Amino acid sequence: MNYHGETPYIFAHRGGMGLCIENTIPCFLNALIYKVGIETDVQLTKDGVLICFHDYVFKLNSKRYDVANLTYDEMQQLKFPDDRKIPTTHELFKIVLNESNIRMSFDIRGKKAGKVLIDTAKQYGLLDKIEISDRSMITLSQLRKFDDKVKLIYTLPEDISKVNEGNLNFEKLHGVNVKAINLKSFRANMKNLNEILKHGLECYVWDLNTKSRLKKIMQMRIRDKTISAIYTDYPDFATSIRTELEESTH
To answer: What is the pTM of this model?
Structure first.
């Protein structure tokens, strides 16, 4: 396939977890070196601190923990095998303040975390730099009522294989002003891309972690439209392929 047109925007999944310790400040800083966006997961601790951490429930030394039942200080005191320090969204926002072209994508644990994220982004003047992704249309609808400007992304549940009128309520998606539908890699095909574009939405793709798949998705297009954004654990591979494709057009 010959490549023509712009390449998708690249988000480093959990900061680029294939290269560093996921959802940590060093990992986020590494993503900035590659000049890509940052994707992370956010949830609230028991005392209302919004942290960048993926698992809702996790085990350490055979003991089970739920983030919602731990205070921020208790989370910081836990000893993880990789010695990670769990950052807050305040810490993340502080390191990107001078990054004019940065975009950040957030997976959230419920509407309350989403509302705190929106308020925090506003404090830093970064609301236009964030995008919130969720599999629940109810949650996205609640966040739209809370703020009419924040960018919302609908992550397609993995049990839905075909993007069409029978599986998705596009009228509702437009009513909530959802920007894009986010597909897992194995759902990213021409039929689904065409259906998404036909309904005036953008298409994002996540779980892109091999060179061959990254290149194939970056080259997908229907007429003048391409995949708008991708999520990868390997921003080094992704940026290299992006450069290769862009240079092939000159």
So the answer is: 0.95
